[in-house]
Amino acid sequence: xxxxxxxxxxxxxxxPDRGLVELENRRVLIFDGNILMELRRMIVxxxxxxxxxxxxxxxxxxxxxxDAKSLGQMYxxxxxxxxxxxxxxxQTQRGFCKTILSYLAFSPDERHLMFRGRWFNSxxxxxxxxxxxxxxxxxxxxxxxxxxxxxxxxxxxxVLVQEQECFHRQHCSFEGRFVEEWGEPGIKFxxxxxxxxLQHKYAQLNKxxxxxxxxxxxxxxxxQTEDITTPKMLPFRSKNMSRVLEMAHxxxxxxxxxxxxxxxxxxxxVIANFIHSVSPKTTSKFLPINCTALPLTLLESELFGHVKxxxxxxDRNKRGLLIEAGNGTxxxxxxxDIALSIQAKLLRALQEKKVRPVGGxxxxxxxxxxxxxxxxxxxELMREGKFxxxxxxxxxVFPIHVPALRERRDDILPIARHFLSKYAPASLGFxxxxxxxxxxxxxxxxxxxxxxxxxxxxxxxxxxKIQLDHxxxxxxxxxxxxxxxxxxxxxxxxxxxDQKYILSVLDHCEGKKMKAAELLGxxxxxxxxxxxxxxxx
Length: 537
Hints:
This protein has helices at residues 8-11, 34-47, 49-74, 80-93, 123-130, 141-155, 184-195, 198-213, 239-252, 268-277, 296-304, 321-324, 340-352, 378-383, 389-395, 412-423, 432-440, 446-461, 473-488, 494-508, 513-520, 524-536, and strands spanning 12-15, 20-23, 26-27, 98-106, 113-120, 159-165, 172-178, 258-261, 286-290, 305-306, 318-319, 329-333, 354-355, 364-365, 369-374, 398-401. It is α/β, with parallel strands linked by helices. The protein folds into three domains: 3-201, Muramoyl-pentapeptide Carboxypeptidase, domain 2; 240-403, P-loop containing nucleotide triphosphate hydrolases (Rossmann fold), CATH 3.40.50; 408-536, Helicase, Ruva Protein, domain 3 (Orthogonal Bundle), CATH 1.10.8.60. Strands 9-12-15-8-16 form a five-stranded parallel β-sheet, covered by helices on one side. A four-stranded antiparallel β-sheet has the order 4-5-7-6. The chain has a three-stranded antiparallel β-sheet with strand order 1-2-3. The longest helix is centred in the first third of the chain and has 26 residues, at 49-74. The radius of gyration is 32 Å and the shape is elongated.
């Protein structure tokens, strides 16, 4: 028996009537390779990519080890080298990849082993791209594990296969040796893959999460233990929010005034707090004030302070927030809504870096940094005479625009999952239909509206997966109207409508058939057949 004569068809025993497929009395399952992608996704999301590596390596090792045992029992190989070469063919015919062995040297005294080769069409490369992982190092740990396990059984000593080049080239290359020939790092990795205690790792993670949840909430300022150097930010992955954070970092180490613009609910105060938290002023106060929430006289007093007797009810001296902030940051939210009289006084305070309390004669120095925000078009208000141009230019030293949620749809699901973990840690997540609606809704109320929708849905769903009927009516009515518009566009036939909808979903999923099939609620094979039919039509 020569390795080139080997065919996996010859060793598989198909018994469809009994529901069995066997390989040398080992039960074999035929399933979609995307299941392994999904398994990898779950492990990566729970443990991280580095912790995932020994787990998936061990899976490949066990499969390869059992295959070597089976092929060794079924065939009489001329030598160990040919037995091993059959394993590279088995790896190819299993569908893991196309394995090409280019070099194999096994010393006559069996003390040294080295082999090299290449992998083409690695399913692990596809998995890595599917998960959108940015790691450019080795990713084919199942393939390494498979050949390691197979070779270890063949040569009766522990063999470790490591990847030398990965998918940033046209192929992946590998090299195998006896494990001790890799030195200390190779020995440690092999030990880690065999002794990896997944249950213990999950127990550690659960313990850490429980500790975080049970942390005492500070009762007053003196008891605060929160790490003020670590700002709280919502998760994001869109390029435009990356740019916003980049700009926030750039201006944080300066004392320049910042004007943050954006629609209601986009998180302007979050960005302002972030700037403060990563700035040298992080140990000082961050004082936000909503300029629209206070009447004119009270807003003036809050900003600039007042002296006793300056107006009815002023029974004591009061320091304004511009002074109270000290060397910290004051955040003027919705600056576009303040009266012109307040604008004039604020402009003078910014120019002179001094403030005079209401009814007072003494000017006090301002040390705080000013960050302002608005959801209005200040340039338009300037043209209408409702906002002072000189104040606008004084505030607009470093403008930052926070995009609306509909302009960064990549961030919607990460933010929604963040709120879901906050409101319902035991929730089973969003159904594919709900995820589709969340990603495609316009969100006029932006992040604030999304948070409210998720909180409502989590209350209705309890510990179950969130379904369509748990969402606010506005979301589902909007989605139904969108679908109806497509239907009434040209009144297509049911078959045409089916095709249009499937292709629309596939386009929404960026051509990813597994994700589209899940969203459509059909099997991947069904979707494949439909797409093939559309091509022939």
